[in-house]
Amino acid sequence: MRIIKGGITAARGFLASGIHCGIKYKKRDLALIYSVIPSSACGLFTQNRVKAAPIKVTQSHLRENNRAQAIVVNSANANCCTGSQGIRDARRMCESVAGRLCIKPDDVLVASTGIIGQRLPMKKIKNKTALLVERLSSLASLEAAEAIMTTDTLPKQISVEVKIGRAKVKVGGIAKGAGMISPHLATMLAFITTDAAIDKRRLKTALEDAADNSFNLITVEGDTSTNDMVLVLANGLAANKVMTTEDFKVFRKALNFVCLSLAKMIIKDAEGASKFVEIHVEEARDIVQAKKVAFRVANSPLVKTALFGENPNWGRIAAVVGAADKAVRENGLNIYLGAEKALSRGIKVLGKGVALKADQQKLCRLFKRARIGIRITLGLGKFASHVFTCDLSDKYVEINAKY
Amino acid sequence: MRIIKGGITAARGFLASGIHCGIKYKKRDLALIYSVIPSSACGLFTQNRVKAAPIKVTQSHLRENNRAQAIVVNSANANCCTGSQGIRDARRMCESVAGRLCIKPDDVLVASTGIIGQRLPMKKIKNKTALLVERLSSLASLEAAEAIMTTDTLPKQISVEVKIGRAKVKVGGIAKGAGMISPHLATMLAFITTDAAIDKRRLKTALEDAADNSFNLITVEGDTSTNDMVLVLANGLAANKVMTTEDFKVFRKALNFVCLSLAKMIIKDAEGASKFVEIHVEEARDIVQAKKVAFRVANSPLVKTALFGENPNWGRIAAVVGAADKAVRENGLNIYLGAEKALSRGIKVLGKGVALKADQQKLCRLFKRARIGIRITLGLGKFASHVFTCDLSDKYVEINAKY
């Protein structure tokens, strides 16, 4: 596997564009992703009970045949809590693009992100659909990545190439995140394209697995925004032979890498974030418990502010772990603070529920790094999980007070 | 019922003191509450699985006979994650006070709040026990309230008088809070005294009920700090006759008022808080669901920062409600924004899941107030609950980054 250029347009037959249509004051706010031939398609959607109109429309377009040829996305307006009018508007976005591309409206998927409760400015969008299609290019991945941003400070894209049989298969993607992500409800969108020839069932399996090891490690399960969406299109233009089990593994590795890279970019660019934090929970009774504890630590404002303050106040971690699950036993609990990717060399600060004498200067140096690792062992079983998160800064408050 | 002066020393036979022993740099950090005769006593304790030593010692002292005559409290050190040494230290605090007061160590209860993982400076505490007892006075409630503070900016005390038969019965208390309280894990301590003659079973019932309608509405159940404790002492010196059912109601009303007053003071003085926010959830399937939704909205950093920014971005509320419970139905959801205590006149912004045209200027004015009410109706049933919370400010981050 090698990282290549091209992002969402790296795979053969994919074009993209990103333009300004006027929902934002000045910046790009409308994106299009297009495959020259119809693609296999599948998606993962928010578990939120309040669902934006584009979620409903995209789900209905996929339900029929798991096929799509284009994705149209706007930022700065979520088209959520907009009732039947919102549904009509989302459909019109698809129709408008489909008309210009001479494809079926059902083969166009739609996504939105931004403020909730306002009608989409359909006139602005329709007026620019011709331009949006005109600008389609194999060099415009970055423009598309920019057009889906809200409070993101950087566009997010990645692409890789793997060999499947004799064929070179490419997988690429763009994403937007922002929000504190962990206690989140800030919309996460990710779009992935590949020229792999792969059947729809396998594509879905691979996407679910990749998301579980990437996007779902940065957001609590079932606790997503009204607009969250991950879509993948596979157009088969790499012309690889039917994948063997080994080939499928290679494909999954590529897809996992793309998803994890995008997920990490989202955390690094989270609103006001100054630290990338990896929280490992080990010796849990089961995966559910490990995840629960990891997410509770990751979401604790007291832990997050201590990380921002570069203050190795691990007592807050112990307190959060104790409150996270009734099965936690104080005298089985260990906490290690260590640099990310060097967790085994972490400094043990709590042993069997009792504070240990740790080198305070060393701990303070550790907390000054941009990447911090926290390891918690529960002494209850054999299961482990981890989660990526960031700190909570004054900048986060500033951004979200205004936005 | 009338509000009277005196706080924790308002009830007959109760004395208090608050001094500086040297755990904090300069401010008071050691408090004593004392009844001239042994009192009925009961308490409520943290559900956290990591429990501080004073929690364990106080629980064991109460278990025997539900009796106590004194409460000793230190701030600035939680005596938590301190192992068997911590237990010995907490016991010694009781013994030291008991020795000076010539009472049994078992009749002394102990509480701590502050940093986790450091041994109590026992020498400093012991050296000042004589002074602590010497300073006992019926005028020193405020000193005691000050001595239990951590990042609180104001001491918190209240007392009331009610008539039970011919007797005047007094109930008073002090508390400390701080922390964002809702996503909390900042220690909450509350101590309440009364001269009512009341049997222990009734005292416990009344305390549990009062806490459910006050302290438990500002903190998620089972998700408390390592040191949370609410204690009540009743010494019977009001010499009221055995309470009738009516009398018991009067007593409960007084206790409820004291607890709710202290709980509200805690929210108003939460770290960096600039708004007092009341969140009402109605038409829930059951109380558990109503509470769950209310707490999720109250704990959402995105909602809290919008409140701080005086930004009536109710879309965030809708998104949090949709993520809070799988039973939520988008087309049954209404949201009203209104001034606290005037909820019926709230402005409806979401009707059956669809945004309504609300007067934006009016909403902005509303969000500039110091007290804000949010009302959410789920359309699922007949149950309701509410929760008190505050906003999330840059000051909160500043305080917690350093502390």
Low-confidence stretches of chain A: none
Q: What is the 3D shape of chain A?
A: globular
Number of domains of chain A: 2
Between the first and last Cα atoms of chain A, what is the distance in angstroms?
Answer: 40 Å
The greatest interface between two protein chains, and residues involved on each side, is: A-B, 65 and 65 residues
- Helical content of chain A, roughly? 25-40%
CATH level-1 class of the largest domain in chain A = Alpha Beta
Question: What is the number of strand segments of chain A?
Answer: 15
CATH architecture descriptor text of the largest domain in chain A: 4-Layer Sandwich
CA-based gyration radius of chain A? 22 Å
Backbone structural class of chain A: alpha+beta
Helix-strand string of chain A = EEEHEHEHHHEEEHEHEHHHEEEHEEH
CATH topology of the largest domain in chain A, anyone? L-amino peptidase D-ALA esterase/amidase
Proportion of residues in extended strands of chain A = 25-35%
So what's the oligomer here? homodimer
- CATH homologous superfamily assignment of the largest domain in chain A: L-amino peptidase D-ALA esterase/amidase
Mean pLDDT rating of chain A: 91
Per DSSP, the total helix count of chain A is 12
Reported for the largest beta sheet of chain A, the result is: 9 strands, mixed
